[in-house]
């Protein structure tokens, strides 16, 4: 694509929403969105690359900038739940319950759209994925722009999502117009996607809101059986294609802790003997076990699952910076936010799992 001048604007994310809406960087970025430009901005999950969701031409720039497949739908971001009715066929009671308990926040709702959203946002589906980010910079930008903004993660397609402004700059500088730097993302992994078009809500993608939290509020919530399928047409972002992956070959190593440590250390020794640079993705509690590896990263503490979610993508990007050839990663129990972490790790490893 043709290179453009990318501006990096810092904003004071500690300001109130009303104060942020008066900051000149927010005003100028909102104007650029209304005029069809591309703006990268922080959300509470990861940084997003936004364009006017009603403009086919504006949204097409997102796919070109990211190198994203056109059949992969985008999430539409709105400044407040009150705006939802303008873009969907109707707002069912389950949507109102979800918005009351989880919005603004890292939950995306899939609903039938009313035809006003650009076709390349929905990938030709009759539904649209909508969410209301809670990051103050995102809220201020969306409220000033006063348009629906389609915004996937602001990274090259398939690579780890950006949780810091410098991640966005590294991946996409020269491919979009403005980067709003509002500090680090808080959750660290993308939003949960919940399809509420059927009789029973269905989880399409685990994320910042856990399945357990949804069931506490909604009762019965099903899990899409195609969640791990690479063949079906995507109903949600993140359901198809290589995602979140570092450049090095990544393996998940699952089993009893001491057996995992022993197996990983044997593989490290053999890989180093062959001249490979080896990385280990682990936690604070176990990082001292892997002294033979070239680079060991603790993405958080096992006793603090949220810290693992926050640190995952930055850890994967660090392995790329260190030019690591092979990465061995410990696994986590499939519950709470760890379910979302494991979903991202399986995709990053392209399903490679070593069981010991």
Short description:
This protein has 356 residues and is α/β, with parallel strands linked by helices.
Care to describe what's here?
One of its GO terms (biological process) is tRNA processing. One of its GO terms (cellular component) is cytoplasm. Belongs to the SUA5 family. With 356 residues, the protein is an alpha/beta fold. The protein has two domains: 7-223, DHBP synthase; 249-355, Rossmann fold (3-Layer(aba) Sandwich), CATH 3.40.50.11030. Helix content is 32%, strand content 19%. It contains eleven helices and 16 strands. The chain has helices at residues 17-21, 24-34, 56-66, 93-102, 119-122, 136-145, 165-172, 211-218, 257-273, 305-321, 337-348, and strands at 7-10, 39-42, 47-52, 75-77, 107-112, 127-131, 149-150, 178-181, 192-195, 202-205, 222-223, 249-254, 278-282, 295-298, 326-330, 353-355. It has an eleven-stranded mixed sheet, with helices on both faces. Strands 14-13-15-12-16 form a five-stranded parallel sheet, sandwiched between helices. Helix 8 links the parallel strand 10 and strand 11. Helix 2 packs across helix 6 (136-145) and helix 10 (305-321) runs parallel beside helix 11. The radius of gyration is 20 Å and the shape is globular. The chain starts with 6 loop residues before the first strand and ends with a strand.
